[in-house]
Amino acid sequence: MKLKGRTIFKGKARGEAIITSQSISFYGGVDPETGVVTEKGHEIEGKSIAGKIFIFPIGKGSTVGSYTIYRLKKNGKGPAAIVNKSCDPIVAVGCIISEIACIDQIEIEKIPMGALLEVDAENATIDVKDPNIS
Amino acid sequence: MLNGKHGKAIKKSMEIITTLGGIYGASRLVDVSSVQVAGVSYANLGEAGLEFLNEMAEDGKTKVLTTLNPAGMDLENWKELGIDSKFAKNQERVIEAFEKMGIISTCTCTPYFIGNLPHFGEHIAWSESSAVCYANSVLGARTNREGGPSALAAALTGKTAEYGLHLDENRQAELTIDVEAQISKTFRFGALGKVIGDGAEGKIVYIRGIPKASVEELKSFCASVATYGGIPMFHMEGITPECKSTQIPEETMTVRESDIDKVIEELTDDSEVDFVSIGCPHCSINEIAEIAELLRGKEVKKELWITTARPIKEIADRMGYSKVIEASGAKFACDTCCVVAPIKGRFKTLCTDSAKGCYYARGKNKFNTKLNSIEECLEAALK
């Protein structure tokens, strides 16, 4: 399956999908040292986004979140790419300053958890491999 | 500027500006004349954030007047306020990076008190949600709610993308608020900000029923309505310069005395105060004069911080207010505030006149809170 969206920041990445249907606050919600989601009661609380294709509908919370994304990247715990339904300014700016591939306007509910993805943010495409085959 | 011909910092800045413009459908860039940059506390930036600022400072220089939000500490008096020297060293490195770019290290959330005062209709790029709300709604300047990096990008290029609140059509009110309560004093304006913030779902509101409001009351209201509601602009009848050019929406929310009392009750925990802080947003010289009169000849028993911009403190020094305040045992904390200073765990219960202060005291610092008038806050400190 191939999905097409809009480029937020260019770059190519390949990796496992970690998906949530809930919005994400990077500031206070993701530990910049470990890449683990720490927001209390969040659907993916306790899971790491490090090295994965991180898929969530939209960002929320403080604008300091852009710097949290940058800290994740510098600590080697950043996501390989970010895919959104609708990219908000906090996440967009975070991806630009951290040089993390980012695409939005994707029907994220079509992507199964754990699927292997090839993201080409330059062309705003995602190649979804069946997790059972790959 | 995007191709890197003007250097790395300009290239990165233009990527930020054009991407945001793309997301929001901007068709062109506009020149800005004033910038306020947030994201100053080392506690939030970390070593990585500082590295980013240092990279930008390699070849980045401000094109327009740019001032800075509060830092994590008083830049001169940090030791007395209990900040450790390792944090202080790192915070100083952050300030140096900003200064290298030509950003004026005002370290205040009230830039409009000390020389960054845009006029009606001026395009600006500010971060600091309370100041954004004040600039749009009280001054009538035009800014979106920028984040730290996007404000920095505007400072280094002198430009922003034309979308959101830079355009007339997006400055129209979407909900009318009828205030049927007597609102006076900063803490009650802050409570009103929470009532509206909680109920307005981020909409631009048209507020009726406030016969008058002081600058201090307005800054308290702006801080609260932005914190609790993410509201970047309101129209207040008789205050907002362009309030006559907006439609008055039919959809109406009424605020009664009981709603204000409920919020004050909600923000007031039943626990003993051990920390009092006035100046969120930073105190005006008027407020400091008032505080000096209330503390004259008295001795405070609790930790009491007066947070303000350094130039305001210097006028207070000249007027003798500082002497009176410091003789009581109260402390000035310039360049910082109770929201951004790394004080988690140091106190149990904060008493303040700031509804915004209560939000961050609870969420970030895990304190209990009491929302009171300035007079009552000082009484709590004297007990």
Assign the structural class of chain A, choosing from mainly alpha, mainly beta, alpha/beta, alpha+beta, or little secondary structure.
Answer: alpha/beta
Distance between the termini of chain B: 60 Å
- β-strand number of chain A: 8
- Helical residue percent band of chain A: 10-25%
- The total of helices of chain B stands at 13
- Describe the main β-sheet of chain A briefly: 8 strands, mixed
The total of beta strands of chain B comes to: 14
Unreliable spans of chain B: none
Major sheet strand order of chain B: 12-11-10-13-14
**What proportion of the residues of chain A form beta strands (DSSP E)?**
25-35%
Q: Quaternary status of these chains?
A: heterodimer
- Strand arrangement across the biggest beta sheet of chain A: 1-8-7-3-4-5-6-2
List the helices and strands and how they pair.
The complex is a heterodimer of chains A (134) and B (383).
Chain A: E1 2-4, E2 6-9, E3 12-19, E4 53-56, H1 65-74, E5 81-84, H2 89-98, E6 101-104, E7 116-120, E8 125-129
Parallel strand pairs in A: 3-4, 4-5, 5-6
Antiparallel strand pairs in A: 1-8, 2-6, 3-7, 7-8
Helix pairs in contact in A: 1-2
Chain B: H1 8-23, E1 29-31, E2 34-37, H2 42-59, E3 65-68, H3 85-100, E4 125-126, H4 129-139, H5 148-157, E5 159-161, E6 175-180, H6 186-199, E7 205-208, H7 215-229, E8 234-236, E9 252-256, H8 257-266, E10 275-278, H9 285-295, E11 303-308, H10 310-319, H11 321-327, E12 331-334, E13 349-352, H12 355-363, E14 368-371, H13 374-382
Parallel strand pairs in B: 2-3, 2-4, 6-7, 6-9, 7-8, 10-11, 10-13, 11-12, 13-14
Antiparallel strand pairs in B: 1-5
Helix pairs in contact in B: 1-2, 1-5, 2-3, 4-7, 6-7, 6-8, 9-11
Model description:
The complex is a heterodimer of chains A (134) and B (383). Chain A is built from two helices and eight strands; from the N terminus they run ββββαβαβββ. Chain A is an alpha/beta fold and 134 residues long. Chain A has an eight-stranded mixed sheet with strand order 1-8-7-3-4-5-6-2, covered by helices on one side. In chain A, helix 1 (65-74) packs parallel to helix 2 (89-98). The longest helix of chain A is centred in the middle third of the chain and has 10 residues, at 65-74. The mean pLDDT of chain A is 92. Chain B is built from 13 helices and 14 strands. Chain B has helices at 8-23, 42-59, 85-100, 129-139, 148-157, 186-199, 215-229, 257-266, 285-295, 310-319, 321-327, 355-363, 374-382; strands at 29-31, 34-37, 65-68, 125-126, 159-161, 175-180, 205-208, 234-236, 252-256, 275-278, 303-308, 331-334, 349-352, 368-371. Chain B is globular, with a radius of gyration of 20 Å. The interface between A and B is medium-sized, with 23 and 25 residues.
